[in-house]
Each structure stands twice: as C-alpha cells, then as structure tokens.
C-alpha cells in the first residue's frame, strides 16, 4: 500500500467562504515554491488552451502546509477546471486529489445572496470527479434563471424559479427549444413576481413530436420581448452533479414519456422518448 | 507488539472496515500493525489508511474469482455465517496457511466466521481476540451454536455495546475468555462543527432494508408539509435505491428528499446539516450516530438493539423513538426543527457527549486489553480448551444451547432446500 504514495499528489482541502472565495490547503513537506494550476478541461481529443497558476503561500506555524486563495480573479470561464500541483518548476505536474471540501455556505438553505458582476453570474464549485480527482466547476452566465422547485404533473411540469441579472418586462415568457440544428421552439406564458421570482408551466402536449423519435427540449426564460432568452438551471448550491440526485418523475402522454431533468451541466431540460409498449396494453 | 487484523474485505465500505482502520492506524503509532484482507476486488481501499499499516489480501477476486477452489463451499467458515456465500475452499486454504505462518503477538478477527477460523487455527503463541461487530441475539441459531463450540478457545471477545457483552456472558459459557465492550471510535473531525442553522436533516448508510430509509422518507412527508424549507439528504448506495426513489416520487417529496449517493468524506456533509437521523430496525453500534454528533448534530434515532441507546442521551443530545414508529419519528424531527434554541443546546451537548468515543480513550482501552493478554500469555499460557461442548455444564446455558440446536436443525434443513432450488 505504501508504495507509490511518494509520487501521488497530495489531497487538497477546499473551503468556500461567504464572499465566494475558494481557499485550497495541502501538505507538501518537501516543496519550496509550489504552485496550484487550474486547467480548463478541453473537449475530448483537443489541446488544453486555458490555465491559471495560483500561488501557494506557506501557512504560518504549520510547516509543510500550503495555502492558495482564489478570489474574484482570475475569472474562470464556464467548464471544468482540473486542479494540478507543481511541486517544483522542473518537476512534472501532479493531478490533485480531493481532501475535505467545506462547502457549507453553499448548502441550499444557508446560501448567501448570489452576487452578480455587471449582470454576470459567476459560480465556482470544487468537486470530486468521477475518477476521483479534484476539479472546479465554473459557470459564467450573463443572466440566469435559477430553479427553486419543480412540480411535475400528469401532462406538464411547473417550474418555480428566480431570474438573476436581467429584469422582467413586457413579453416575458418561458421558451422551450428542441436540441439540434434549427430545432423548433415553443413559448409558454410566465408569471413574474417580486425580486425576479417566476412561475411557468410547460405543457408536454404542446411540444411537437415525430413518431418514434426521441428528443430533448432545453428550457429557457425570455425576460422581455426583445431580450435574449437565458437558460433555466440550478447552479446555486453545493451539488456539483445534480442529474442523479435531483430526480423527478416521468409522465406518459400520447405514446411518449416526458422526463424533466437536470443535465450534466445542471441545466433544466425535458427528455422525450417514445413510450415502450407494455404487453397486454 | 505485532498486531494482525483479519478483515473480510478492506476494500469495501462499511462500519467494520472504518472502525478497524481507525483502530489499526492508532495502534500503528506504537506497534507493528497489519490488516489481512481475506478478499480484494479493487486496487485501493475506499477509506484512506495510514501508510504505516500494511494491507495484504489473501484472495484477489480480480484474478481468482474463477478459480475452481473458489467455487467449492468452505468447510471451516461456518455455513450459518452471513458471508458464507463469499467464502470457499480457496479462502479456507489461504486463511489456514496465513494463520499457520503468522508470528504476530495479537491476532484479531473482525467477524464471526473469521473468529471461528482464529479459534480453530490461530497460532498457539498468539493472543487471539474475536471482535463482534454485530450482535449475538441477531445471529441465526446455527451460528450461535458454532460460536458456542469454538469461542472458548479465544483469549478475549470484544463487543461494541455493553448490552451485547451482557448477552454473551449470559447466554454462552466462555470460561477464561475475557468478554469486554469496546465501542467503535470516531476521530475528531477536522472541520469546525455545524452551527445548527442549516435546514437540512442528514442520514448516511447503505441503502438496505434494515436501515429503514422508507420509514425516514415517509416520516419526512409531514415535516415537508409543515416546513417545506427543510431538506432530507440520505447518503449511501445500495439495493434499495430504486424503491426509495419510487417512494419519494409517490409521496411527491422530490423537492425535499434527496438520495445523494456516496460521499468521499461524510464529515464535510454532516456539517452542512443540523440534525442527524437513523431509523434502523437493528444497529449493533451506530457509527453514523457518533459521526454526526462529533460534527455537532443532535441525532433522532430509533431505539433499536443495541447501539443507539448507548450513544444517545434522550432529550439531551438527541431523541430515541420506538422502532418502526413513523409518527413518533415525525414528531421528534419536528420538535427539533421548530425549536432553534433546543437544536442549538442539543448540538453543544452532542459535541461534548460524543467525545467519549474519541480514539484516545477507546484505543487506550484496546491497547491495555491486548497488552495485558499478551503479558499473561508470555508468562505461562492458558491451555486452549479442547472442542466439544460439555453439555450439562450449567442449566441456563444448556437451555440456550438446546434451543439453538433445535432451531439450527430447522434452519439448516431450509438452507438445504434453498440450495437445492438454485
């Protein structure tokens, strides 16, 4: 068991504070000027293009312990930022392992008011990847519609949420857009309340279907007649991978099943599949 | 001392694995410690382990699953043991060889079947300690009788509760065997404790029937109706997942109750909550109760055998409700949810009261026990009694023996029939 641990990257503890700063801490007893690197994970088969080095500072009175703080800058563009350690400049980088992640201020019922910077919402969430490494999810949205609760019904799903960034005006609506090139769109009435609160009901029967064909509809909110629709999703808590945690029931309507779900990026979509016929039906 | 633990599978997830790791790495400060994992199915253990503790596996399922010896049933590992189906002629052979070549001073078994191996094949010079992480009363009669036959050959038997130690003393004749309660220990969390303000109830454990998460979810329906701002988070994985998911959907609780999957470090999850919950119908110890309390969460638990009642001081650092009582469970949760001040004082009490499960006193107790037995062994050893139970020794024991024998015969018949049907 002890073999190989020398070359293994250390576990990095993270803490998010009320101001949204992320503090990273780790033990590197041998290091003199180590660095923490965040690299935007490229699409499969492509080269890394973006990275940030964050300075690690020795923690006073704790020999071998290093700390890095990630404040509002550098801004992380949307995606998954894998964490690496550079123990010395001439040594190869090591992929960081997650230690304790203290994300309690992000927990849904304790969360601080989200702050927007010139209308842009920036969310950063340290998480453990499926293969067990430390990474940071980042979202950067010029306008965002945060889901508060979903009420799936027999033929529809009602979405309660809150618009962040733009304000509602005349012609506000929910927009469902089928994925794929020039997919059709459907608009649905939206009720806007105070403080950006909104409610709308997406009726599955209004979504056109092609016989036997599956489809995915992305859910958006258009703040007013001329505004660019913003994506509906849930980004403001401590859950990095929502798809298998926030799970809602499926409805069957006219030979298709409809499933409101959160995508791998925590956005809200509706999955439509031809219903499989049950014997004896 | 050189100390060896026999563990079913150091690479899995569960309370016994965690507590064995805790004990092993604490002992490694002053002793040479190894964990012998009977089975292995992956490269690294799920839980982190001090590198000073050596881990070796006897049967590697990644390469030996198809070994013909692994398809034959074991002869030493008892048939009535819960893990019987995972043991084989191959494990019999490997464990026997391992024990024969072991020069440790203390060898510790961590489940009934391994304690049987230890009692029958443990090295003569070593102190043999059987650990009971389950409970005697819950064992099938056939297993109880096998343990009754071989446990007199052990030097000590540790249980995780006083209630279970009492059961062993009362229902088994174990002359010369030290029977002692050694609770599981939980290290102090590295993170600051929860401040009791979060509106989250947290539960953690394998998603299996005995944990009764269905009861917890049902009881939360009333909580969500009265306090929709509160959430229930259940951490863990297991065969009940889809049924629990269906129940959440059926009750319309998908905005309040979440199956979170496993967490690499529960500590970081406990501190996001302000109440811990455990609704098992059987909990030999209840590690998650202590873990939650050490993070500053009062715990609402069923009063099931045997752990919760020895961990929680009702009304002070948590609540105990009758097993299976959904109404009482909702009431207890709502009491704490509706009363911020009560939650805060209980949180402080939970932190203070759970310190008795700190590794320092508990490992101290274990170390003292092992040292004492080791010294006794070195200065003229106790002869291991021969096998064969002397029937008629004491009436009370005989009563248990005869009853268990009758049940065991019935159970083994059923078992034979079940096997035949496969």
TrEMBL record, chain A:
Protein name: Transferase
Domain of life of the native organism: Bacteria
Lineage of the species this protein comes from: Bacteria, Bacillati, Actinomycetota, Actinomycetes, Kitasatosporales
Automatic annotation (TrEMBL), chain B:
One MF annotation (Gene Ontology) recorded for this entry: glycosyltransferase activity
Gene3D superfamilies: Glycogen Phosphorylase B
Domain Glycosyl transferase family: 196-350
Keywords tagged on the record: Glycosyltransferase, Transferase
Keyword Cell membrane applies: no
Glycosyltransferase found in the keyword field: yes
Domain Glycosyltransferase subfamily 4-like N-terminal residue range list: 13-187
CDD domains xref list: GT4_AmsD-like
Top-level lineage group: Bacteria
Designated name of the protein: D-inositol 3-phosphate glycosyltransferase
